Amino acid sequence: MLTFILRRLGAILLVLLVASFIVYNLTAIGSDPLADLRGSTSSDRQERIDQRIEQLSLNLPPVVRYFTWLGGASKCLIFQCDLGIAFSRSDQPVTAAVANAASSTIQLVTAATIIAIIVGITIGILTALRQYSGFDYTVTFLTFIVYSLPIFWIAVLLKEYGAIQFNQFLADPYISIPAMIVSGLIAGVIFMSVLGGDVRKRLITFGSAFAAVVLLLAFLQVTDWFSRPTVGIIGVIITGLAAAVGVTAISTGLANRRTLYAALITVAVWAALYQPMQYLFTFVPQGWMLLGMYVVSILLGVGVGLLIGGEGKKEAARTAAIVSFITFFVMVIDRTMLVYPDYLRRIPQSGAIATIGSETPNLRGDMWFQIMDGFTHLILPTIALSLVSIAAYTRYARSSLLEVMNQDYVRTARAKGLSERTVIVRHAMRNALIPIATIIAFDIGALIGGAVITETIFAWRGMGSLFVTGLERGDVNLVMGFFVVTGVLAVIFNLIADLLYSALDPRIRVS
Length: 511
Known about the structure:
mainly alpha; MetI-like fold
């Protein structure tokens, strides 16, 4: 394994050297960093031109300038990067400009990528298991439509209906009875299609989903939830129980009682800690402290799983840790929602769903205000990026799982009497995820490179806008700073994908 990694790192270094040489010289030859000064009418135009020529060493050939740049870039190996200055950013160091843009882009794409992977693969698995059903045909039709839509059109629709129209609804929230009925019908059809079964089971599923959605919307309307949203201890318990049952069913199956008990005990522990946590949250002023609490929540689940798991301690600890993380995450959401009314009073002109930028300028408040503000700005671009990726991952997961389900070893597993859950989760899915791992690895690298159109529409100053600015102004150093980040991430995620192959399929060895 170590030999393989070192060999790949050597190849990665060679690829980056060749690619950086080509990109630098093409950008230097095809751009004019003095174009803005040549058209200037300032009296000191020539002095400024001479100053920039000296500053950027434009009197030297591009090849010589590349090796000068490479000398500074090589210092990144000892964590002392010197990528030059970006004259298009008021002579700001390129490392600072790239760091700000990369953090903004990572903030944007992280949630979108996680949501797309989880939702897309889940829907793809469900459609594969319901092949040629009404649900399969409907999802296939919708995914083809969403995948073919231009991202700018999706973003514009989201701004109109996901922000402007929805903010108008939140200003005076009212859900009519016809809207409740229509929502219930849609939910009933979706759940009935997903769960399947005979006619009687479908009707029961449809009726249960319809009644649950109608009652939920009526409850939200009566309690004025949209004006003062909260999860509350009841919501935390319900979400935790649903996570305990769902994660256990996928991980080990509900027949494994010890694992299920470990997950349920974890939920009970968090329910008992709900009120003390509300007091403790007031003393968490920094994000790193909240991150530490997430780590503690995982350790709590692991500890409960090890105590309760019996012979299956590993599976119980893993399941309880996931359930503990989900339950604590819901508690954090609940705490963040408490600042919602005060947050709206501070930004009356913006509305609950923001459409421009990554933050509200000059907004003062504690960490919870910052989390709320970040969420309101992230929600629309996250949905825009997620929709297209979900459609793609759904198609990939469906086709990959259908191909694997016809393999001999899957039929052998069924013939041995294994449960359908075990056949799908432990045998079929691991091999089905191999091609998906490659796609996800490349997609993550590409997204961190900047979603240019999405960033432009939502005025999000990330890597995409950084790259466009560098090209437009002929700022070679800025373009190369972009290349360093995206190029390194692309090859690293490609290496990670190769390592995942051996983890997903024991027949694959890296040596």
